[in-house]
Design a protein that fits this description.
globular, single chain, 168 residues
Length: 168
């Protein structure tokens, strides 16, 4: 993100400073139209990175000034989007792989976001609100959570290399 400082001079006696944030258009996909982005659970993901386009823009608006947190927020958004898409997965092996990936991405956010342990839940809630933003998506997350709730899960300590394989 580039920041430009512009000094506005209205007269000889008043000066105002205006900060303009310039979004690096190379990194963000085009912003989709509101209703088009909400038509399906999968939504619109023009760059194919697993995070819907409108979510990428929302993450930038929330965390764009903190690169470390912004990058880590992609892991959480990807994790929620994967849960939505795989909510009706019948293949138990695939569900197990999704669960393991979920735990790795949770660890990645915790370790590399720079957020404190108590802040992590707040950030996760904000990101979930961006991703799970329609009744159909809420229903899909509910189905995924029912399956996840029946599993024995162990905390995973992800390595830097594991986290960086999800480089958005």
């Amino acid at each position: 993100m580039k920041q430009l400082l512009v000094e506005l001079v209205a007269s000889d006696t008043s000066r105002h400073t205006l900060t303009i944030k310039e979004i690096d258009a190379q990194k963000l996909p085009p912003k989709p139209k509101f209703f088009a982005a909400r038509e399906t659970i999968e939504g619109i993901d023009t760059d194919g990175n697993g995070v819907r386009d409108e979510v990428e823009h929302g993450l930038y608006e929330l965390y764009g000034e903190n690169h470390q947190l912004f990058r880590a927020s992609y892991w959480t958004a990807y994790q929620y989007q994967s849960l939505l898409i795989s909510a009706d997965e019948k293949d138990l092996i695939k569900q197990g792989q999704n669960d393991r990936e979920f735990m790795i991405l949770t660890s990645c956010f915790t370790l590399y976001s720079g957020a404190g342990i108590y802040e992590t839940g707040d950030y996760s809630s904000e990101i979930k609100a961006l991703v799970v933003n329609t009744p159909e998506r809420k229903t899909a997350l509910g189905r995924a959570n029912v399956w996840l709730g029946k599993q024995r899960r162990r905390a995973v300590m992800a390595s830097k290399e594991e986290c960086e394989q999800y480089d958005f």
